[in-house]
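Hey,

The postdoc asked me to send both predictions to you directly instead of through the lab channel. I've kept everything plain text so nothing gets mangled by the mail client. Protein one:
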Amino acid sequence: MQQLCRVAVLSILCLAAATSPAAADPRNADMDNWSAGKLRARGEEALSLRQYDDALLYYNKAATKEPGNATNYFKLYKVHSRMRRFMDALGDLTKALEVDPSNLDYRTQKAKLLKSLGQCDQAVIELQQISDPPADVRELMDESKQCEQDIAQAQAALLNRQYREAAMMFQSALRHVEQASDLLWQKAQALFEVGDYYGVISDTGQILKQHAQHLDAYRLRGQAYTWLGEHELAIKHFREGLKLDPEHKGCKEGHKFVKNIERKKKRGDDAYAAGNYKDAIENYWNAINVDSTHLAFFRPTLLRIVEAHTKLGEHDMAILEARKHVEHMETVEGLWALADALTAAEKFDEAVHTCQRALEVATDSDKEAAKRKVQEAQVALKQSKEKNYYKILGVARTVTAKEIKKSYRELALKWHPDKNADNKEEAEKMFQDIGEAYEVLSDKELRAKYDRGEEVFDNQGGGGHGGGRHHFNAQQFFHQHMGQQGGGGRGRGQQQFHVRYG
């Protein structure tokens, strides 16, 4: 195997020589007639100028002229090390030691390189061949033995499925090395098993920088992104692997899994956007049930289901699903979703307590938002005891402007006094309240003040929200907002007002 490696190395060197600028330089036309000493001198000059391909050409020719001179192979080792072609460098040192096995410097450099590549057991074997080693070599031996021990323990732990211990031991071993993709790969596998997906992404990223065609690194990185809920990035990595091998089983399965979830989720999103909340809920559950252990997808999607139930007025179901989310793992987002569901169900006291709990568990970055949510819940509680504009229009506090307008139109037509001759007094009061609620909630500035618990009308005084001091003409407001559908001014709109009630 070592002989095959050396043949491969020499083939690469010959190819580099054929394309080297030095080979094309007319001053080097008689290079074949140069002495090995002159070739080494030119190699030193090229190396100092970082002209690595030229240096390889000169040293390789010197080695051809003097195959029994270990210096030539040691020079090649230096160039390959500068180029970070460490396996080539290792082959050079091996050849140098075949020619000069008693050279302490060569042996020590080979042991250092083996250790840096994670082949610590081989480094120990090399160092054991040195009799009466100096202090620095003894220190290198101790480090190599420790590295060898860490690797052996890490691999044993990995084999025994003691993944957390294996990851720790691989990390300890990696402190002794510079470039050991095989150790990094084994560590990444252990991290995946303990759910440290960010660690997996970091380690496989390093592997792919060194080995851009490492198929299993693409597969494992894609799986890590999957379980973090980063589905777009997961698909990207699975596709990169499939470009290299369209039949790679792991990448094919991972890609199919994520695409299946995303396809069902998109159906849910489309249904939600269209206002088909029952269909949205069904499709979201279909996506979740592809793998209900996929919590990074399950949990945020469950909050979307909570919102859909609220939109449908299914408040008990919304609260039930939100409580499941919180009971599984208490997070600020889950507590806020529960508070919103409680508010929509007019359970304002519970909503306040839930927002206060969210403030207790909030991180520093969420504290201000959590304080605002507490304030909003307290305002909703206060407004529930007064005139509640959201309740009057039958909408949630998170309602959109479009939904406010739709609800107003439906309720204004339903409660118009001309349509309710049998209960005109009640209809007039409802019609007044509906118009007043729309006046406030359809105006961004007034709605913001109302949501903050502030008085929304300058002449409102101490009468509370809509407390009777605001003079509001519901009929005139109705004509202004319902009478003109094709444009034109307000006065013209009143003149052309026609509504069909029956």
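Protein two:
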Amino acid sequence: MATLCQVKYDEGDVYDGEWNDEGKRHGWGNLTFADRTKYTGNFSSGLFSGGVLSLADGSRYEGEFANGKYHGYGVYTRADGMKFEGQFADGKVSGFGLITFADGTHGRPRNEGQFQENSVVNRCNAKDAVRKAQQAAHVARGHAGAKK
């Protein structure tokens, strides 16, 4: 059974949310770091598992996580407005997706296809991955707004 409580850590971080019987963040929660980075969403065994991570520099990730890292489908938007919609693995852009610049363009040639290490390695249609990323971001925003 989940327990709700708030914990203020010595470093200045604050967690407000659910805990499991093992004393780990588990279920819905809000973690604000001392540098003003903030994660709101679901936790699994103490780690981010799906939600919204707003970084102190103004960048934002909305989507799926695994083992506390970006993993699966999501949308990463930099502070300057450039965004990547698509697949992530182990905290990095990896898989199919699309880059959109702040002015709404995608570059020439179009930055769409299969990515590895933040670079396009195979230019192709990635509409399915973009759609799944947008859906994952929508679900993540729902988790972030689902405070109990």
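Summary for protein two, as requested: Residues 127-144 form the longest helix (18 residues).

Thanks,
C.
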